[in-house]
Amino acid sequence: MSSFFPDALLLARFQFAFTVAFHIIFPAFSIGVASYLAVLEGLWLLTKRQVYMDLFKYWVKIFAIAFGMGVVSGLVMSYQFGTNWSVFSDKAGPVVGPLMAYEVLSAFFLEAGFLGVMLFGTTKVGPRLHYVATLAVAIGTFFSAFWILAVNSWMQTPQGFSINEVGQFVPESWLAIIFTPSFPYRLVHMLIAAYLTTALVVGAVGAWHLLRDHDNVGARTMFSMAMWMLVIVGPIQVLAGDAHGLNTLEHQPVKIMAMEGHYESHPDGAPLYLFGLPDQQAGELKYALGIPHLGSLILKHDLNAPMEGLDTVPRELWPPVPVVFWSFRVMVGLGFLMVGLGAWALLSRLFGKLYSQPLLLRTALLMGPAGFIAVVAGWITTEVGRQPYTVYGHLLTADSASPVAAPALAASLIAFVLIYFAVFAAGTFYMLRLMGHAPQTDEPEPSPAVPKRAAGLMPGPAEGPSNLSR
Amino acid sequence: MDLTIVWIGLIGIAILAYVILDGFDLGLAILFPFFRKRQDRDVMMNSVAPVWDGNETWLILGGGALFAAFPLAYAILMPAVYAPVTAMLLGLIFRGVAFEYRWRTERLRVFWETAFTGGSFVAALAQGITLGAILQGVDIDGREYSGGWWDWLTPFSLLTGLSVVVGYSLLGACWLIMKTRGNLQDKAFRLARGYGIGMLLCIFAVSLATVFLEESYYHRWFDFPAILLTSQIPLLTAIAAFALFWALRKRRDYAPFLIALALFGLTFAGLMVSIFPYMVPNRITIWDAAAPHSSQVFMLVGAAVLLPIIIAYTTYSYWVFRGKVDPDAGYH
């Protein structure tokens, strides 16, 4: 059994990475859209302007599909801890298990409970109760992010525990476990990422319809709102990301070395490498192109601050540098593009040309999926950068896996890949088709076409498919 | 008070809640092939569409609470039932998205209906197989599972798998009796009779097989004086069975579903007799597997506050949604 165990470990890691990378896309989107829906409905209640309600009804249909995919892919995650990482489950379960149980109790039931009312439409319950439901769903997505990032942050910067005689992590202080040093940074960075992701999608949909018809009121409103979001939140994200980086340098310096490509130490100030090919075997960054001293300036706010490199760390504790190095650059690069798009849109707005510049609209369209890519890249940076540990500094990934044979892992991996691509491609297609319809005045409710699919406070009567097209 | 007992009780409630709640909506999907008409299928799906999402959340709670309160049991059992649990998850993906997708395509409607039925069948079968695989015992070495990845597959686990499919189908048929009228309801009555007989046969077969599976199970059921208590379960099951067929004959709307729920409760009680206080039969007790006291306390605070709220709004949603599904709603 032990002869092929390394393969089993690799397969288990690959399967987990694949299913998480897929899953993270849906919550990233639904956190943002849930808040967007709450804002739209709130604006409608305040101003009674028809366009806000139309946009609400437009996006709530897309939200329903994304939410459904998030639910089923999340169900998979909740059981993979046991199937693929049983030793981790045994050891870390006493700490991370309760946090995840809190997520189910405070978030999942809340979302499932109020989604029905939200999809149910404003005509059937009073607008106030409906707004309570929309807020409840949005708050549910926050609670969910709060707890799952608490779990993740604890795995990155663990504290507040002791280890008992059988090797389990025993909670000593729940406050210390929940509020680990990296948690606030991670939570803020992720929530803003969700907002940016949603803004880019909303902006792309708006741009698509503006390219066809610049007078469409719904398209103008969504494009304008999305661009405001980029302008305001984009720069905040750059600051939040910088702060998170400093926090990581303090608590997980090896991860920073991998992100920066610092195989060697820089006693007189480190460069910022813009490009290079990390060679893990040789332990060097080939064809490195860097700006001298900028790395030290960014990370230590001092041009000549010394930076240690991976040469100070035992080789078996190195994370896979090429993956981390590149995923980090993808995330940062896209982040700056987002800020650039926001600035361009702001300028255009000042000159009164926000809706009429085809190049801006096309760029916004092209940037539609950028948030998803950046979120997945950021996730890869932080998770792969944590290697070779599952619980940083305490439990190695190699010591976390289930005693499951490689063929079982290979078979399930293939099944997951095939089914995820088929099922989620279909869902994406249905969402894109909804996005392909221009938003209309008196946008139809989702109710005539789709069933009320969730347990709600006041679910409506079941209905048939009277107009399937939307 | 022993918190471990409190937690096993709470997890028991979560699992039973899941089995009876998702049981009927999975069972209803398994019955789809018996109904050919488009409109019947619309009504069937709409009768559970408002509640399935909440129902399935109990599965996440059951698994999550097991992970949190009994991490060792979770760590040993999950690799042991790796294949059926994976199959269950994949089945639930298909049937879960079918609720949304079926309404969004005319061309592929039949495909997503098949996914709805097939996914539900696989999920139900896999849940039954998982139960059987755990009941028949798993190999352990230290704190780890040490068996192979096909150990779950035995005639016994296939029998429990089939039994769960039949039991869920009975729940689904009884749910339909409660929620529909006319031809659809007539058919549901016929299906409920057939699956009612099927479920009794399954209960009988699984009980017999379980008792002779392990010597310890036999003693738990038949040693004096325990038998005075344990014999109540088959007795009550027999009474419930008579009541079920009586209610079906009298064409009662609500009684069949409630009695079917009672039958599930009784089989669950029977299961408890066989394995309590073990979590891994004859190897790991609930106290061996329990998480440290600090974990149990922390979670109990949340459960005590949040579970009553959850139960309140879930109950209310079922209450609001009571009564028959109107097949004409939506065609206006």
UniProtKB/TrEMBL annotation, chain A:
Q: Does the keyword Transport apply?
A: yes
Q: Which InterPro entries does this chain map to?
A: Cyt-d_ubiquinol_oxidase_su_1
Q: Which UniProt keywords apply?
A: Cell membrane, Electron transport, Heme, Iron, Membrane, Metal-binding, Transmembrane, Transmembrane helix, Transport
Subcellular location per UniProt equals: Cell inner membrane; Cell membrane
Keyword check for Plastid: no
Give the organism, scientific name.
Banduia mediterranea
Q: Where are the transmembrane segments?
A: 20-46, 58-79, 99-120, 132-150, 187-211, 223-240, 323-347, 359-380, 409-432
Q: What is this protein called?
A: Cytochrome ubiquinol oxidase subunit I
The text of the family note is: Belongs to the cytochrome ubiquinol oxidase subunit 1 family.
Region annotation (Disordered) maps to: 441-470
Membrane topology listed for this record: Multi-pass membrane protein
First-listed, main subcellular location of the protein, grouped into a coarse class: membrane
Automatic annotation (TrEMBL), chain B:
Spell out the InterPro entries in the cross-references.
Cyt-d_oxidase_su2 (IPR003317)
Which topology term describes how it sits in the membrane? Multi-pass membrane protein
Keyword tRNA-binding annotated: no
Domain of life according to the entry: Bacteria
Query: What compartments host this protein?
Result: Cell membrane
Q: Which residues cross the membrane?
A: 6-35, 56-74, 80-98, 110-135, 155-178, 190-212, 224-248, 255-278, 298-321
Protein name per its UniProtKB record:
Cytochrome d ubiquinol oxidase subunit II
- Organism from which the protein derives: Banduia mediterranea
Q: Which family does it belong to?
A: Belongs to the cytochrome ubiquinol oxidase subunit 2 family.
> What keywords is this UniProt entry annotated with?
Cell membrane, Membrane, Transmembrane, Transmembrane helix
